[in-house]
Amino acid sequence: MLKAIDENEKSFILASFRRKEIEKLKGNQFYCPTCKEKVIIKAGTKMIAHFAHVKQHDCAQQGEGAYHEQGKWQLFSWLKKQDLEVKLEYYLSEISQRPDIYLEIGKKKIVIEYQCARISEIEFLKRNEGYQQENITPIWILGGNWCKRKNTNQLTLSSFERMFIHQYDENFPLTLYFYCSTSKTLILFQDLHFLKQNLSIGNLHIQSLARCKFMQLFEKNYINKNDLANSFLKEKWKFRNQPVPAFQKKEVAFRKWLYSKELHPCNLPEWIGMPVTHQFLININPHQWQSYLLFELIHQRGVTISQLVGKLSSHFLSPLNFPLIKSTKNPIEEYLNILEKLAIVEITGLGEIRLKDGFRKFKSVNEAILADENLANKIKGIRVHEEV
């Protein structure tokens, strides 16, 4: 921890002292501001000066590593230099929580949590519930160690990282924040579209913390439509041509289902596997649930959106598991709206869906790939987000 108190409950932040001053402080007794147990000064040459508990026990302030401590101090100093009213490890007595950083801008209360270690979903939801209770906006910045770059503008995102997706209002692009305390770089990943359940493409912006301002965290940056279309094409090529490893059990089961319906990746229509922003609410890959949806459209007349949602309900995750997102959309509705813009389906006033040109199977992989390319060109022309 960066902050401790003395016997008079006066706060001390070691990182703000010079080394000679820290040496003089070593004769004093300090205590953890959370559990009130004794702590000692740690001030080596390889890490930022901090306090540590004398005894190992259960305390929310215990177990933070050097990477986290350095990043927390760097973020605090960054905000301080911008003349913001900011506090380090400030205790919120009403909810018994101590965020890494607390700041106020006008009447707006904000906390920043710099998360470098894994926490449980229960703990994550509990902490956000507390902030919501006090009308505090939380900003969770993941450690740079969680940023797994797959390509120029693609990240692999596990279920843990997907919990931290932010959206401040319905017109704000889905956003993830990362900060590396070693390179002192801030990473913004915005306007996420999921090519797979755990693979997202978006606008990836990497910038030195020193050159960034706090309000830049709230700017809206969108994905280049050409990048989105090209990435869609690459994933479709893999889907149609590459064999499935045996350890990918969900995908193997899906392929067996396809074959039972006399379908195959090579002859599925080009609009199967399209990336949608709210894919994170479904726990299977886009090409899987979109194929299930296709089968329903082929074999039912007058099927409605609500009926399609019901068919896939077992695969849905609760929006309550994503407390940083203010306005979630149903990914099936989102997908069908894209298909309507592409003139692939027609949606009646009663919410009934029908395929405009029916369904035809491709005769070869080359024919399918050509259709994929034509669709990719159409994707470049549709409006995939609301620009304000």
Q: Specify the number of helices.
A: 10
Distance between the termini: 41 Å
Strand arrangement across the biggest beta sheet: 6-7-8-9-12-13-14-11-10
Which overall shape is indicated by the principal axes computed on the Cα atoms?
A: elongated
CATH uppermost class of the largest domain: Alpha Beta
CATH architecture group name of the largest domain = 3-Layer(aba) Sandwich
Total of domains: 3
- The Cα radius of gyration reads 25 Å
| Unreliable sequence segments | 384-388
SS strand fraction? 15-25%
Q: What structural category do the secondary elements indicate?
A: alpha+beta
Mean pLDDT, all residues: 88
Instruction: Provide the helix percentage.
Output: 25-40%
Q: How many distinct beta strands?
A: 17
What does this structure look like?
The protein is α+β, with helices and mostly antiparallel strands. It contains ten helices and 17 strands. It has helices at 19-25, 66-80, 121-133, 159-162, 225-241, 249-260, 286-299, 305-311, 331-341, 365-379; strands at 3-5, 11-13, 30-31, 38-42, 50-53, 85-88, 101-105, 108-115, 137-143, 148-151, 154-156, 175-180, 185-196, 199-208, 303-304, 345-347, 352-355. β13 and β14 form a beta hairpin. The chain starts with a strand and ends in a 9-residue tail after the last helix. It comes from Saliterribacillus persicus. Residues 64-221 form the Competence protein CoiA nuclease-like domain. InterPro entries: CoiA-like_N (IPR057253), CoiA_C (IPR057252), CoiA_nuc (IPR010330), Competence-induced_CoiA (IPR021176). This is Competence CoiA-like predicted nuclease.
